[in-house]
Amino acid sequence: MPFYTQWGNISFAQIQLLQAWFMLCNFLLEIPTGVIADKFGRKTSLVLGSMVAIIASIIYGSISNFYIFLLGELLFALAMALISGADNALLYDTLKETNQEDLAPKVFGKSFGFHMAGLLFGAPIGSFIASKFGLNFPMLLMVIPFALATIFAFKLKEIKNINISESVRYFTILKKGMSFFINNKKLSIVILNAILIHAASYYVIWLYQPLLMKINIPIIFFGYFHAVLVGLEIIVSHNFHFIEKIFKNIKNYLIFTAIVVSLGFFIVALYTNILTIFLFLILAGGFGLTRLTFIVAYINKLIPTEERATINSFISMFSSLSLVIINPLVGLLIDRTLVLSLFAISILPLIALIFFPIKNKDGIS
Fold first, then answer.
1. pLDDT number for residue 310
2. What is the rounded distance in angstroms from the CA atom of residue 127 to the CA atom of residue 115?
3. What is the pTM of this model?
């Protein structure tokens, strides 16, 4: 947030417009980048994605201008589209070629663990760099990990005889996902409930820093708060089985999480201090940002095995596209008043409970 508002001199509405632009570009670029993976291989797609990310970091962190930021987001979206899907596909194909498919859950779990560890330890480093060297330096220094990623990608072995086309897979996700959504109204209600509350929770990521700025917390500490947020997500997501036992009924947990997300926004809007910001991170962040994952994991048993990966990808796409619409509106509201914006967002989970109620007969019991 300080990077955008202090170094970039742009409004919150412009920040959220940038995020909406990124999500839209990422969505639209999935097909052409899928063709690149099909024609030249997934290794090539990963190398190109890492190289584009280097260019994006340099452009984004060098010039303080909203239109330059739009270009930077476009390039980051291109990099993400080139990498997303190709990385996991290459990983699985490598396991398959070496007859180690049975290790896939363990290997993918470790991959996710490394991802979360990167966020956990990277955030404090980023805030230290920003406070000591300048707000744009964390962006510029992202060149280093992306350069390392490029080198590692070059060293990967391309797996031949790929049977699944990345570009065709994307069309399949859209077609089958929409068909499943229309033909399974009960599960559609559950998914809409999850996406709406996830959209509210998403703004924890963007609003905790303006709240810290409001009570004059130095930038050097911002990364530690982000590390706390990531740590809470890890704790909650790794204890879903215990949560299920505590609440006895999945429906009860989903209602509970909807209420606490709403409560987190409401409390910090009512009174802003260190304690309420921590409560905000715990309630709206720790429980809210993991809620969609919890629901998707649980309803997977209700989705046919052969369609599971496709439907999961469609839910992820649908969730991102919903934010393309909501982001600019929330940004305009926050520019007017942060407090009223927090109150407004606190209403979204309650709307989800009223208009998209989760019932035991929906398969969530």
1. 65
2. 19
3. 0.83
